[in-house]
Amino acid sequence: MSPGSSGVAKVKSEGLPPLLPLKLIKRNGLRWLNLVKYGVGIILIYILLRLRTFKISEHTHLQSLSDPAIVWEFLADFNNMKTLNPTIIDFEIISDGGPQNDWSYTVRYSEFLHNAPSIQNTITADFHVKKEENDLYTIASTHTTCFFHSVYCVRAWGHFEISKSRKTTAGVDILEEVTFECPPIFFWFCHQEASFQRQQIKENLINYYDKLSTRQLMQGS
Question: How far is CA 214 from CA 3, 59, 64, 185, in A?
Fold first, then answer.
């Protein structure tokens, strides 16, 4: 090859990487940018909607009663729970079985939100009703509410303990504990709903047995 030929220049040009079109670079850059945006969005949604558990409790004393079994049977009947909890709209018993002192049932019920009455939820709940030792009566329940075709579900666990009063010679003590799942961003809303229902159940239960006791006294006089 003669010195004047362009062979050396050709060898150098063959060793360089091919240049990408500018449009292709921009398109790939936008694609990666969109992927990053989607990824950040998914992470934010997870942080905002991830579930945490919270717990509240309510104690009720019924002075007019002495037999905790009466209150236990009353609370175990979901017909009465609809009366005690004004947010419950309707319900359907799906299954029911077991011996009298240790039985279970499943119910599907609908309720509206106290702070947003236009919003209604459908909930499936499993109840376990049991007479324990030493005149202790319990009602344990698991409530499941699902959204977006059951893709996103939240649960709540309820537990009633009904017993003779340990502080007074007469009366029945009722302890209700509720543990519920809720995204931290909606904690105030969830807590307000759970607290309202607990307070309503307590007040309506006291009023029911106060009126019942008054009627019995009037009939006996």
Answer: 122, 23, 9, 46
Token pair for residue 78?
Answer: 């979901």
What is the chain's mean pLDDT, rounded? Answer: 84
pLDDT above 90 covers a percentage of the chain that reads: 55
Q: Report how far residue 106's alpha carbon sits from residue 221's, in angstroms, rounded to the nearest whole number.
A: 42
Give the pLDDT score at 163.
95
pLDDT tens, 19-77?
556 665 666 666 777 777 777 767 766 666 678 899 999 999 998 888 999 999 999 99
What whole-number distance in Å separates Cα of residue 219 and Cα of residue 80? 24
Q: Which two tokens stand for residue 180?
A: 């519920």
What are the beta bridge partners of residue 91? 109
User: With b meaning 16 or more CB within 10 Å and e meaning fewer, what string describes 147-186?
Assistant: eeeeeeebbbebebbbbbbeeeeebbbbebbbebbbbeee
74 is written with which tokens? 């009353």
Closest CA to 209 of 62, 78, 17, 69: 62
Residue 34 has what DSSP assignment? H
8-state DSSP, 198: H
Q: Is 134 helix (H, G, I), strand (E, B) or coil?
A: coil
Measured CA to CA, the distance from residue 80 to residue 74 in angstroms comes to 7
Backbone angles phi, psi at 195, to 5 degrees: -65, -40
CA angle 31, 33, 37 (to 5 degrees): 115
- Please identify which residue in the block is written with the tokens 């119910």: 107
Distance between CA atoms of 140 and 205, rounded to whole angstroms? 18
Residue 113, beta-bridge partner list: 116
